[in-house]
Design brief:
mainly alpha; two-stranded antiparallel sheet; 2 strands
């Protein structure tokens, strides 16, 4: 039998964030108009949505993925109509398509409904503070304390 762990708010936060993300994915309704993405494609698409026009090397930096995995994901996303690439060689930039924007809009709507129903007893100010804290944490992980703005996938 495992020994009880001492309270650790940081470990608890990490555990909860990982589990809540998993539960959100499981409970997101399957929409017929949503293009299904792999976990790697979701990571890449999030960066493309937040930073349209970024280079594949920047996507690899931001996601922590190997360049070969990013290249594979970019090819898959391009084949699914989710992004376009412009330029050639080292000057390639990646842009979301209208299909990607629509896909994200549908997903965000489903997430909003799901969480609004589950959190209807929580003060909206608390939700805003939580969002700010998680956005700050994301920026720190990315090594970027500037405001990123944009949307999330």
């Amino acid at each position: 039998m495992p020994l009880p762990q001492p309270p650790d708010p940081y470990a608890d936060l990490a555990d909860l964030v990982l589990n809540v993300a998993r539960l959100i994915r499981l409970r997101t309704p399957a929409e017929p108009d949503v293009v299904p993405l792999t976990a790697t494609e979701r990571q890449v698409m999030r960066i493309v949505d937040l930073h349209p026009g970024c280079a594949p090397s920047r996507i690899a930096e931001r996601t922590g993925l190997q360049r070969t995995n990013v290249s594979t994901a970019l090819r898959g996303l391009e084949a699914k109509g989710m992004l376009t690439r412009a330029g050639q060689g080292r000057t390639v930039t990646v842009h979301p398509t209208e299909l990607a924007r629509t896909n994200l809009e549908v997903l965000r709507g489903a997430w909003s409904e799901l969480l609004a129903d589950l959190l209807d007893d929580i003060d909206p100010g608390t939700i805003t503070r939580c969002n700010r804290t998680l956005a700050h944490l994301e920026r720190r992980f990315a090594g970027d304390d500037r405001h990123l703005g944009g949307s999330a996938t």
